[in-house]
Amino acid sequence: MGELLQGLDHWHWWILAVVLVILEIFAPGTFFMWMGISAAVVGLLVLVAPSTGWEYQVLIFAILSVSSVLVWRAWFKQSPEQTDQPNLNRRGHQYVGRIFTLEEPILNGTGKVKVDDTIWKIEGTDCEAGSKVEVVGVDNVVLKVELR
């Protein structure tokens, strides 16, 4: 294994970079992309300084990969992506503000409501079937409702 690693040159790092970027395409999450960029940087370093030992190449790759992923995640938390559909993948949140008619009563604070083609568990004050309720919040997969 050591002999194989001693033969690393810039092409190996650039091929690894391409493979990691392709992995990012199939498993998006901006994790593999930063590792791919790190591999490309190490490949450029090896092109400029071909006498760099494989131990240092792997060490630089590891440091660049970890630090770039951590910096990206910190930056992304500070400035999240703006979208015109913030509830796209948050299905329950799409129903906040909508009013539904109960087909079954809410008993002991829980019940069910049919929303489009799905039955949702709801929590709210007890009320009769036929009552109108408004979705005011979401707790995991439970819609919070109030009587209207």
UniProtKB/TrEMBL annotation:
<dbReference type="InterPro" id="IPR036259">
    <property type="entry name" value="MFS_trans_sf"/>
</dbReference>
<dbReference type="InterPro" id="IPR052165">
    <property type="entry name" value="Membrane_assoc_protease"/>
</dbReference>
<keyword id="KW-0812">Transmembrane</keyword>
<feature type="transmembrane region" description="Helical">
    <location>
        <begin position="58"/>
        <end position="76"/>
    </location>
</feature>
<protein>
    <recommendedName>
        <fullName>NfeD-like C-terminal domain-containing protein</fullName>
    </recommendedName>
</protein>
<dbReference type="Pfam" id="PF01957">
    <property type="entry name" value="NfeD"/>
</dbReference>
<dbReference type="InterPro" id="IPR012340">
    <property type="entry name" value="NA-bd_OB-fold"/>
</dbReference>
<dbReference type="InterPro" id="IPR002810">
    <property type="entry name" value="NfeD-like_C"/>
</dbReference>
<feature type="domain" description="NfeD-like C-terminal">
    <location>
        <begin position="93"/>
        <end position="146"/>
    </location>
</feature>
<feature type="transmembrane region" description="Helical">
    <location>
        <begin position="13"/>
        <end position="46"/>
    </location>
</feature>
<keyword id="KW-0472">Membrane</keyword>
<keyword id="KW-1133">Transmembrane helix</keyword>
<dbReference type="GO" id="GO:0005886">
    <property type="term" value="C:plasma membrane"/>
</dbReference>
